[in-house]
């Protein structure tokens, strides 16, 4: 008999290896990738491949340079590459996923010690790195039918417009490559069923998110509204694939619940109050950073050291269920509930004030564009026409333009001195642009004023500067033309064509409405 | 009563190799070796010297102190030497070597059943002690010590451990099938010592024949019940059994008797029955010789001191085209890999597992950094956090290991190492750290005494 092998027990091992787990996660992401490629075309496939190859290549390079054991076969780099690709817009040039994957692997993963040592999710960190470095390309989504780069469903949702939940669920809408919620759910639930990802995390993320969106989203627990919020902005991907990254999530079950709730609540707060369509990446990263803290303080006691077990071992009777719930759980639940009630109380108290302030802001802008008026009264014809629009887009030539309100300005004697139309364009670079247009009885534009303008500071925000806005003053035209050379021309803000287009579209929609409904009606 | 504990793993059983092989006596031929330290506690003191004639059933080494056990000769012949020999652990240990004359002359035929009605409790315990009985489940704790808890009236359960959760091992399955009545007799004797206790025979569901056999034998014994437990490793661990049957978790500092339980292996109970009723000391026991590398895996009744090599040969030796890459004393989860087959079996050796491949070597090639996946925490039967414990060891933070993470409560069942996808050597590190912390404590205590 030749030399016998010696080792410590156990002498048999489970078949699951790191590589098996990683490749299973990769497979679970495959349905999403396939849907992404089918919906968005071949370029998406190239993005996915470039991202994976760059990730695996970077790790190989790192191992080669630092003379470490080659670790690319464990599949974790490929998973990072895949997750990054799925969180990118299908229009990004190929250098973006390549740079992103290199950042994820070389900086976030390898520089901090490799597998199991990264302090935040590498794919998400890379996504944020790309958002900062290539903001324009990262937020550019495929062109809509009107030739204008259209917003993602979450942007629509944040702007208070209706969205198609079915399309969002299937992933056939505008968004990142991995926006198919259905495919994500299939993969995620399989991983959960295989016990590869922890249900404690996924469901507490979704639970926390739903709760906060329901409480503060402004539409209560309307199932459609909640579903639309869950289906957009990578919530499902975040819950099942990003938040569940082993290395950056807590080990204990209680810790995982706390961590998951943190992600869900932060993600919802960022979305509801920050109006950010991209909130989920950041909330996961922030929670990642809390993981060491959670793991330091939430260490479950071994079964034998829990109060109920100690009593039982000492021969005492079992304590009732209520007393067996760990105190931190009760405390956390109470704190969460109290905070929720307090916040929603504050919200409902301030809600009316906010509405009043909004009204006041509207009135101020009406006054600004129709200075001769002493008071404003509603126009019956306009009211009816707006009601007929039913909140839909006005006209076909103005992109996503909406008519909010149209009023008649009168002087002290009751004489009509002008008209004000409040219009909105949903095609702003950062969501909605809302403005009021003042028109004299003879059809001349008196001036315009913004009531909502959230455009990029220094670029789109220049729309409010006199240089741009005053161009509209005292012009007697039926329609303005952006960069037109004629008497109806308006010069665009340099570097903010999208904003300029949106403003002109909103004004033109308002003028169209005035001429076809109000003046015609008069 | 629940049918299981929290955590645990489901390794492949491999019991089909030997489970239908009936127990058969194997009589050794060569020299027999009896290590003086086969049990927990102080090694026994040799009471024979070179050249002394001995017979089977004769005590050749006496218990040295309270926590120690007699060692009984299993064959007849002459004492060849009292010297250091290699044992299962790989270390050279003091052993009594007997030249076996092959006659198996016994001190007594051990066939006459005594009426024990008039025996006092102390006499029963004395017989158990004289017979050199120790826990045959693996740890080898002297049984007479276990039978003398501080509060005998507080004992609620006598658990007969027939779980046999270790993969590959089937000898207790066969013992329960063939000797159910004797096991029940042993239980009745122990139950006499504990008037408030119920006898529970605990068997995993994967042994239906043994369950049926024990149930049949338990008919008419009011205090004895047979319980089927879920098939899960480490179901046969003392703590897992107590959790499953009494519902109690207790810290490592306590003994089962402190929480009202006495746990004895079915083999031990069988030996108690033989010792008390027939005055037969413990010098043979059941053992499985198994593994994919062998021609004919078997269940044997073997004599203590037989060498591994002889038993492997008795099981048909290694198959043609296969190689015995690893030989394990015991099962693959908690067993010890031996460096040579020229070592003797002891009272606690319940299996010899001969494997044609080394899964550990293969696993080591798949080793990666810890993923923090938390699998180890879900399988730990004690509810520990193995991953955090491993981190604390790497950081050298023994204070955190011991006091925050309760690392000394690890029972070294190996479940965490078994399940780890990154193939980290967790249990190994815990055993080493525990030994180190205990050594430091002893050193500190010794220093304090000066």
Describe this structure in words.
The complex is a heterodimer of chains A (522) and B (450). Chain A has 522 residues and is α+β, with helices and mostly antiparallel strands. Chain A folds into three domains: 18-300, Ammonium transporter fold (Orthogonal Bundle); 304-359, no CATH class; 370-521, no CATH class. Chain A has helices spanning 18-40, 42-66, 76-86, 95-109, 122-133, 135-138, 153-158, 165-170, 181-193, 199-216, 223-231, 235-242, 253-272, 279-297, 307-313, 321-324, 327-369, 380-389, 466-469, 497-521; strands spanning 375-378, 401-410, 416-428, 431-439, 445-453, 481-482, 489-490. In chain A, the strands form two sheets. A five-stranded antiparallel sheet of chain A has the order 1-2-3-4-5, sandwiched between helices. Chain A has a two-stranded parallel sheet with strand order 6-7. In chain A, a hairpin with a 2-residue loop joins strand 3 (416-428) and strand 4 (431-439). Chain A is globular and about 110 Å long. The termini of chain A are far apart. Among the domains of chain B are: 15-20 and 110-278, NADH-ubiquinone oxidoreductase 51kDa subunit (Rossmann fold); 363-449, no CATH class. In chain B, 30% of the residues lie in helices and 19% in strands. Chain B contains 14 helices and 17 strands. Chain B has helices spanning 121-130, 143-146, 171-178, 180-193, 208-218, 238-246, 266-278, 308-314, 359-365, 375-379, 386-394, 398-404, 415-419, 426-449; strands at 24-26, 32-35, 45-46, 53-54, 59-62, 71-72, 77-86, 92-100, 157-162, 198-204, 224-229, 261-265, 284-290, 298-303, 326-329, 336-337, 351-355. A six-stranded mixed sheet of chain B has the order 1-14-13-17-15-16, sandwiched between helices. In chain B, helix 3 runs parallel beside helix 5 (208-218), helix 4 (180-193) crosses helix 7 (266-278) and helix 11 packs across helix 14. The longest helix of chain B is centred in the C-terminal third of the chain and has 24 residues, at 426-449. The termini of chain B are far apart. The model of chain B has no long low-confidence stretch (mean pLDDT 93). Chains A and B meet through helix 1 and helix 15 of A and strand 15, strand 16, helix 9, helix 13 and helix 14 of B.
